[in-house]
Amino acid sequence: MISVTSLFMPVDNDLRLLTANLKKLIGTRHPILEAAAEHLFSAGGKKIRPAIVLLVARATMLDQDITPRHRRLAEITEMIHTASLVHDDIVDEAQLRRNVPTVNSLFDNRIAVLAGDFLFAQSSWYLANLDNLEVVKLLSEVIRDFAEGEILQGINRFDTSLSLEAYLDKSYYKTASLIANSAKSACLLSGTSQTIADNIYSYGRNLGLAFQIVDDILDFTGSTEVLGKPAGSDLISGNLTAPVIYALEEKPLLSVLIEGEFSEKGDLETALELVRESKGIERAKTLALEHANQAVKYLEGLKSSESFQALQELPDYVVSRIY
């Protein structure tokens, strides 16, 4: 299996620089926020989103070096992503993320909400300073999409009539929007044609959907150690994902257990068993694969380079996590 470290070799130095810069960008005016940021940016994580921005930047600049604005865009992307995780963990009342205590479990909810808000505000400020209205519009949309995805997830808790389309919409808002719009923004900063920028957006959109579907499959097949959070945690919180939506078509009892919000002892274990017995996980794998294959097609038109190669292999890496 390809490792993410070898995939990101073309932007290895860029990512090292990014990690050092992120802590500086938060500033030192607020000791608690600084402690929260230090904790967040040190908590591992593969930095996949900024890596995609940097790979797109290098694949579209080719003979020239990437600009400070490309680097800042990658930093903004990671800040927006991190802010969304902080808010996500509060809503889910999560205690662990990447096997590390969450900001809300370390500092309490009030500080965590403010830390997430601060990161969104700080990223917006740096975004405005890129002085590129088109990029500002694209990434402002991402911040709005996060909120919309979170609201949709909240409204649809334990709703067994949730359609696959509604699930994919929510997955776009919560995951794919940032990947698609930040990758497109990198093209705009490189001055590519509109066609290439639009294709890279579609690449990011499909890659992001594949990524989210794979994450949702791992919630049933991965261990707590690998996931960095308890297995089955989506289902516990009533968040119905692709494997469950498919499983509901063949397991009527699953519907009863979900609508009862697992009120009886053993309900959750039975529900997890029903999902694993069904064709839900296999069908979700097929769906992830379709989006991964679709993503690669949108790279046509880019010239061959190490970064292009990495972008081509990334959808394979995303899907390989479930095999």
What do you see in this structure?
This protein has a single domain (4-320), classed as Farnesyl Diphosphate Synthase, CATH 1.10.600.10. Helix content is 74%, strand content 1%. The protein is built from 17 helices and 2 strands. A two-stranded antiparallel sheet has the order 1-2. Helix 5 runs parallel beside helix 8 (133-155). The mean pLDDT is 91.
Explain briefly what this protein structure is.
It contains 17 helices and two strands. The protein is mainly α and 323 residues long.
Offer a few descriptive terms:
single chain, 323 residues, mainly alpha, Farnesyl Diphosphate Synthase, two-stranded antiparallel sheet
Task: Please write out the topology.
Layout: H1 4-7, H2 12-26, H3 31-42, H4 48-61, H5 68-91, E1 96-97, E2 100-101, H6 103-107, H7 109-128, H8 133-155, H9 164-190, H10 194-221, H11 224-227, H12 233-236, H13 242-248, H14 252-259, H15 267-277, H16 280-297, H17 306-320
Antiparallel strand pairs: 1-2
Helix pairs in contact: 2-3, 2-5, 3-7, 4-5, 4-9, 4-17, 5-7, 5-8, 5-9, 7-8, 8-9, 9-10, 10-16, 10-17, 13-16, 14-15, 16-17
